Amino acid sequence: MEASRYKSIIQGTGLLLVTLMLSGCKFALLDPKGEVGVQVKELIITALLLMLIVVIPVILMTIYFAYKYRAGNTDEEYAPEWSHSTKIELVVWIIPIIIIAVLATITWRSTHHLEPSNPLVSENETLTIEVVSLDWKWLFIYPDQDVATINYVAFPKDVPVKFVITSDNIMNSFFIPRLGSQLYAMPGMVTRLHLVANEAGDYRGFAASFSGDGFSHMKFTATAMPDQQSFDAWIENLKSAPEVIKDFADYRELAKPSIDVPVTYYSHVPDDLFHSIVMQYPGGMMSDMMNKGTEGDDKPNHHGHDHQSNQPMKHEMNHSDEEAGHHMAAHGE
């Protein structure tokens, strides 16, 4: 009995110490620095509070009944034949059903509202950054600026960023917790994630899916710069970097598996590098066409859906077919 008591004290003390240590940790999802992250936090807290409406009473009643009907309490009524109460049945069924209905409604609305591919509403023009998951590093390509980086990405605060994501190995997941949603990176497929930083600063990003030996080293820094001028100056400085990716052969060299890769800057990349990476895989053509077909989503559309023409899509399909033919011919297929 005495040994059991000491064991309980030791376990309780250990749990308290662990709790105190964890209290010093910052939980990124609950400390968002971007518009999408703030909305995700609000959704998490709302769902948690709604579920606690059921959880807290259950915990309290468990403690209450355990105390009230303890073996030493002989004053309470003993009713072994009792088996049903309409009032209790109504409470334990109706309240959870209402909560589930409310949660379902919130989830339905937020799922559409927080859809990663939806452009963010802003007065500032969207910045496009192409992201490639590699073994075991992240390649960030700035197509409009003609530069690229490894394991580092920067953008101005308050400027919407469209991350166009793919993978050149196995499936992975791109995640900057303080800015918002994570999104899968898949070979031969293109996914789009729109985020914005409301505060300047450095934010941790990483691969959220296991992808082999170097998985734990797939980390990067995302820097939200104070203003557009700071970002433009950074781009100009980057353009003087000695490293360049001249062609796809250079890219294949840097894409070789490597672990704990330092931040690297490239002052030039081929215009079609991201497209070429996607097109290596079956289904890459269709995914790339779908991505190109939605590039205009980030710009205001003053004509409405009824006035859109199908001609640009036809042109894009013909263009992609042509490129696919050259690609296959080059490989002797």
TrEMBL record:
The lineage of its organism: Bacteria, Pseudomonadati, Pseudomonadota, Gammaproteobacteria, Vibrionales. GO terms for biological process: ATP synthesis coupled electron transport. Residues 21-118 form the Cytochrome oxidase subunit II transmembrane region profile domain. GO terms for molecular function: copper ion binding; cytochrome bo3 ubiquinol oxidase activity; cytochrome-c oxidase activity; oxidoreductase activity, acting on diphenols and related substances as donors, oxygen as acceptor. This is Ubiquinol oxidase subunit 2. NCBIfam families: CyoA. One of its GO terms (cellular component) is plasma membrane. It is a multi-pass membrane protein. Residues 294-333 have a biased composition (Basic and acidic residues). The gene is cyoA. Gene3D superfamilies: 1.10.287.90, Cupredoxins - blue copper proteins. Residues 288-333 are annotated as: Disordered. Its main location: membrane. The chain crosses the membrane at residues 43-67, 88-108. Residues 124-237 form the Cytochrome oxidase subunit II copper A binding domain. Belongs to the cytochrome c oxidase subunit 2 family. It is found in: Cell membrane. Keywords: Cell membrane, Electron transport, Lipoprotein, Membrane, Oxidoreductase, Palmitate, Respiratory chain, Signal, Transmembrane, Transmembrane helix, Transport. InterPro entries: CcO_II, CcO_II-like_C, COX_ARM, Cupredoxin, CuRO_UO_II, Cyt_c_oxidase_su2_TM_dom, Cyt_c_oxidase_su2_TM_sf, Cyt_o_ubiquinol_oxidase_su2. It comes from Vibrio quintilis. It holds the Pfam family COX2.
